Structure formats: structure tokens, C-alpha cells
Amino acid sequence: MANDAMQQQQTQQMQRYKNHIQTYTARKRILLVSSEDDVNLALKMALEEEEQDDDKGCFKVDSFNNPILALKDFKIGFYDLLIIDIVMPQMDGFELSEKIRKVDDKVKICFLTAGEVPGKVRFDPFTEGYQDRFIRLPIENEVLIEQISKIICS
Prior knowledge:
The structure is a single chain. This protein is α/β, with parallel strands linked by helices. It has a single domain (28-153), classed as Response regulator (Rossmann fold, 3-Layer(aba) Sandwich), CATH 3.40.50. Helices cover 44% and strands 17% of the residues. It is built from five helices and five strands. It has a five-stranded parallel sheet with strand order 2-1-3-4-5, sandwiched between helices. The longest helix has 25 residues, at 2-26. The protein is elongated and about 65 Å long.
């Protein structure tokens, strides 16, 4: 009987491991670029949180606080979504997105902003039709996950 209990325990552990691997590989990959370390950490933690219902809303996030390093490390076809802060030193989010589009014109890009969008944008990004491409900070975790899921699945 001890062997049966041990085998059952090993089988359960193996199933949990397989479920974990399946969930991990099924996650959508996101590249997050913000010069603010606290923003990167908060968004990464919210998006990678394991305790979502049915593992929905779980993502694998690679984050950078330097847009030049993010561009250098960018891999074609690797990410499902890029989340890029608009205001950054060295290179703003729009410049980074233009450079990435030259390498991979199919990747989805969403912009972060903590305030008004700089003058390069000649429309209100928070009106109907554009809010999917812009996330205004601060944002509740549930709303963030909902918006990112919607963008990735569109």
C-alpha cells in the first residue's frame, strides 16, 4: 500500500508539473519598456501574477528600462505585444516603435502614458477607437489585464 500511495503522489506531482509547463508555454509574451523601474516592476508583477482565474490574464513579461537595450534585444516574432512608455530619455516611445516596426511590422504595440500624450499625436488617444493602443497610468491591475488581453486577442 505504501508503494501505491507513493506512486499516486508522484503521479500527482508530475501532473502539476505538466500543468505548470503547459500554462507557462501558453502564456503570451510581452516586452515592456519604461524608464521608470517602479512602473516596470509593478506592471510586470501584475501581468505575471499566477493567481488568475483559469490562468487567464497570465503573461510572460520581459522588461527594460532602457529603450536602446530593448531595441538591441528585440527578437522578431518572439513577442505578442510591446508595451512602450511614451516619455523616456535617449529615445521616446514613438521613436522606439518606429525602429521596431522596421524590423517587425506585425508586432502589436501599445503605449503607456502617465499624463497627456505629447504633441506628436494629433488625436486624443483616449477617445473611441484608440484607447486599445494607449494605457493611462495609474491603472488597476484587473483593468490592465483586461485591456492587454483585449489588445493581444484583437
